[in-house]
Amino acid sequence: MNTDKRKVLNGYHVVFLAQNLIIGTGLLSLPQKISAVGYSQWMLPIVFGIMATITLWPMIWINSKYPQENLFSINEKVLGKWMGKIVNSLFIVYFVFILASLIDNYMLLMQTTALAEHSITLPIVFFLLVLVYIVNGGIKSIARFCIMSFFLTILLLFFLRWSIEKGELSHIFPLFNFNWTELEGAMRKGFMSILGYELIMVYFPYIISQKKAFKHTVIGVWISITIYFITTLVSVMYYSEWQLKHIDYSVLNLLKAGNLSFVERIDVLGVTLWIFLVLSTTAGYLWASKKSLESLLSKSKHYHSYILVAAVFLVMMIPIEREYKEKLFENIFYVSFLMILWPLFLIVVHLIKKKQVR
Amino acid sequence: MKIGKLLRAKMGTSSYEKVQSEERANNQKALQTINQIKEHVKHMSDVVLKDIATVEGIVTIIHCSSLVENMTMQNMIFTPLANHLNQIHQDAEVIDSTDTEKIVSNIVVGHTLLYFHRKNLLLSMDTFSVSTRAISTSEVESTVMGPQDSFTESLQTNISLIKRRIQNPKLKNEDRIIGTETNTKMSILYMEHIVNQENLEKVKSRIDKLDYPGYPDISILKQLIEDNPLSPFPQFYMTVKPDTAMHYLLDGRIVILMDNSQEVVICPTSFFEMFVSIEDYYNRWTTTSLLRMLRFGGFFLTIMMTPMYISTLTFHPEILPYELLVNLQESRSKVPFSPLLEVLFIELIIEVLREAGSRMPAKVGQTIGIVGGIVIGTAAVEAGLVSNILVVLVAISALLSFLSPTFVMSNTSRFIRYIFILSAGLFGLFGQMLAFAWLISHLLIINSLDTPFMTPIIPRKASDLLNSLIRFPTSYLKEKMGISRAQKK
Amino acid sequence: MTGKYVVSVIVLVAISLAGCSQKEQKVPLEDVGLVGSLSLDYIDEDQMKLTVAIPQYSKEAKKQTQIYSVVTELMSEGMVEIEKNSHKKVILNQLRVVLVDEESARSGQATKVIRSLYRNAEVANKVLVAVVKGNAEEILRAEYPDKPAINFYLSDLLQAKMNTAFNPNTNFHDFMYTQTNPVIDTIMPSIEGKDGLIELNGVALFDEEKMIKILSPQDALIIQALQGRKKIAPLYLSMNHESYGKEILLLDLIHSKVKIKSNKNFESPKVSITLKVSGTLAEYKGARERDLDKKEAIVKLEKDIDAEIKRDIGKFLEKLKELKVDPIGLSENFRMYYNGKWTTEQTKEIISKLEWDVSVEVTIISTGTLK
């Protein structure tokens, strides 16, 4: 489609894309993931925010050197056609796995809370169908979906109020009550949950005002960080350190404390409403992988997303043991660090090339 | 009058024969033409040919009697023929007497043809006059406040209803003839200095591209030119109220009218405007804001309520308060079906009642409605076919579905509800939320004239927010809505 | 463009087809037994008696509640056993109240069961727990002729009146929070069945996993006040004044505010507690009754009440010091300044060495409408 090349994303689209691609299932288990630092974990989201802002800069820089290209065509331009294509196909594999792990994570949660005693194969199929539907609407419809999901799910923050009432603010003291190994462990596990902003490298060419893209993305990132900060702070106030470490989806349990006269268990409502956040995050990744496939095959077709989704489904259905699978999905997140650092590598190659030309 | 006519006829008789023979000799061609026309209208029994003698010789009058009323013939043809022939020459249009195609097409649109034998001159007069309904109040969109007149099935009346509200030379109406078989007249109305030219071009080109035999109603035209014909949602607004049409014209929208259909189409429009009634602007802003929230919330409630019943009962008994659950258990204890079937059963009964009520003659319909509502409802609960709590829920959601001022939207909400019911039956709340996500993304994807349908929920302009769920006092509503992309002054 | 339509059609068709063929038949609500309350009785080290109360909605049944009891080693095993006896699928999704008898609380068995219930995703976190003096099963089985069904009676009793009357209600989250938090020890209400009604008559105090003592409501009140609860139950005081003799008064507490400061010294810990209470004097019996319309007399009375409450708090803290438990969470004020992991041992040490400095400030807002 020729409309694909048109610039479609306004400033607020960029803000909410960045914001919503970050919050997937990560938030649900964040307090548990960074529980290694104990009660001091409420400071970590801020650290993550700073790290994200710093790593965002090279991404924007390399993209602004090629304002019409996305990450994949930049790969081809900088690394040469064949090298680029190989890297891009690796990216597809990475995206497929990260999608599988995101959806798998959420579906497992579904199975434990809302769909007990149910097989989740059929729910996954329907989830993927809706996902494809969103993605085939293009990046703008994903951005709009992000805006809607933000406003639909932000209401959940209201349900934290019971936990705040019950919590002890004194838990945040003493400040910096951790050592380096604890911090390192928490950072490694927790940083994954703020991944998602790196997709800016893919949708950058669609942004109308590219000069402000950095500012908008940073705003989006920090909205997410604020939400992360609030939830970790409330978790710290509400839980004991043992609970932080041992409750899997502590954010859900925060919702469980809620008390409405007509709804007893807000957590069920919350976890099903969470589907909006998961859909918007996965839609971003699926769209990025579709773009990557397009750059590989040099044409754009709607059925590409079906192929990718089928691949995701197959990965999720691999008949291997649960434990091994979880390990696989966990490790795929370490690849994400590579993705964060990838633009640095591109910048280096770009600069070397430029010198050679001179 | 009569005597005068007779006199004139007698006076003419003497010369008549002379002239007639002259003409017969001179105008063999004329006769041929008449015969040709006769040949073309052979099986159209309502086409009348009449020879009338006048000062200028014999005139053959041809018209289609079912499209022209006798009074019109009298006033526009017979009287001038007898008295002021000049008037006819001034009014009528000369057409080529050899072009039989055109002659016939003139007859079928209600023109009267006058053939002057002596001069071999064919004139055509627009005498189209069919009986039309009087302007009456609207049954479909009744309002308490504001003007009560509504459009009729006559294009001319409808245009006049709008034009008398906007007496401005900038209000343009472009006519088109559509329908490859029916040659239906339609008109595109817009304010020249406000409307977005791009939108106008789009509408025009979409209409020009149409190739469809006939349009019993404008809704068919609407479905053909909408952006997403597969969507369950209407993407153009339809109304029978001229004040609504006027309101949107002034906002820069395009209004499409068609002969023979009461409703007019307004485009582009947004999802939210489906819940807006023109009465909203007549009411106080506080009342209006309340009503709008009710209607808009009602749409989501009506699609969510009965599915919620299914998912809580089958999947998540923990989310309801204990007391309510025990009540539910009690009322469900006699019901033999699963909640899904139970809901489908009673929803279908409601649909049947509604459909039967709307097909029946008005007087019978009302009684059937009461019988259906009370008798079937209570009897079904007593018989243990459905639980009483469900009857309450279904009744409320049926009422809620009629909150939307646009009838098509309320039909849509009922259809959407079935999707939600089935998905709730499948996966409980998860299915419901998935369906909700689908609904939201669908609404975000579809367009109305290439403008996103979901505005102003995601506003195109900040000022749209002043006229959304909360309607600000009228003095604040100066800006045009973002969706109409009006020209800037 | 057409891809979108294809997907939407596929989704629609698939949903409608799948909706028709429900493979996994869910148990409909009416065939589910919703356990409302559950009780636990100690038999020996390994075994316990599990009793559940399930509401009976059928009109033919004589009783409103069906009770099942089973002797078992494990919670889940017991549930399976109960399901065998019941004609319904028994689920814990709507569990409201868990009662444990004193013995199982003292032996630590109760803690284990609650811990396993807390882990269960079906069970809410707001399930209330209480210790029963005597047999817990009896409470569920007893007849309460003028009360609603036992499930509702129990949950209302333990839950409502949260802000006004004495009620140290404890739910699963509170229980687990206090169990796992080293700076605070668990308390939970204790109830007793008296013919035809259930009485809330004290607070069970836990030392780690085991219950050690049942405290009086008066002590529970102090715990609540010192924990910083803003609204607490009416305060009943009986004073023995040197010049006025025996006095009895009831203070309807409207607002209480507490400030606890520690000296940050782990060797010789000391806390200063400032309690500000304001309320109305609901009832007074004693020698000063006639003077109470005078401002000075009230100020004097306030001073006397201050001293009395101060003495009560002192006595209570003394008791805690002896038991080496900390249900108030006083050691939190030391943990805040401690870098590193805080342990239960440290709490015990702090409590056993604790010195305090209490100041109480009572304000009587009014003495009623009579002058």
Mean pLDDT of chain A: 85
Secondary structural class of chain C: alpha/beta
The helix count of chain C comes to 11
The N- to C-terminal Cα distance of chain C equals 84 Å
Structural class of chain A: mainly alpha
The CATH class of chain A: Mainly Alpha
> Given the structure, what is the number of helices of chain A?
17
Q: Residue ranges of chain A: pLDDT <50 for 5 or more in a row?
A: none
Shape of chain A: globular
Largest interface, C-beta closer than 8 angstroms, per-chain residues: A-C, 35 and 33 residues
Secondary-structure map:
The complex is a heterotrimer of chains A (about 350), B (about 500) and C (about 375).
Chain A: H1 11-22, H2 26-33, H3 44-65, H4 71-79, H5 81-113, H6 121-135, H7 139-153, H8 161-166, H9 180-191, H10 200-203, H11 213-238, H12 241-246, H13 250-256, H14 266-273, H15 275-297, H16 303-317, H17 322-357
Helix pairs in contact in A: 1-7, 1-11, 1-15, 3-11, 3-17, 4-5, 4-17, 5-15, 5-16, 5-17, 6-15, 6-16, 7-15, 13-14, 15-16
Chain B: H1 2-26, H2 28-40, E1 47-54, E2 57-64, H3 70-82, H4 85-91, E3 93-95, H5 100-108, E4 111-116, E5 121-126, H6 155-163, E6 171-178, E7 184-191, H7 197-208, H8 218-225, E8 237-239, H9 242-250, E9 254-258, E10 264-267, H10 285-314, H11 322-332, H12 339-359, H13 362-382, H14 388-401, H15 407-445, E11 447-448, E12 451-452
Antiparallel strand pairs in B: 1-2, 2-4, 3-5, 4-5, 6-7, 7-9, 8-10, 9-10, 11-12
Helix pairs in contact in B: 3-4, 10-14, 10-15, 12-13, 12-14, 12-15
Chain C: H1 2-20, E1 32-34, E2 37-42, E3 48-55, E4 65-72, H2 75-85, E5 89-91, E6 97-101, H3 102-107, H4 109-119, E7 128-132, H5 136-141, H6 150-159, E8 170-171, H7 172-180, E9 187-194, E10 197-207, E11 210-215, H8 217-227, E12 235-241, E13 245-262, E14 270-285, H9 295-323, H10 332-335, H11 344-353, E15 355-366
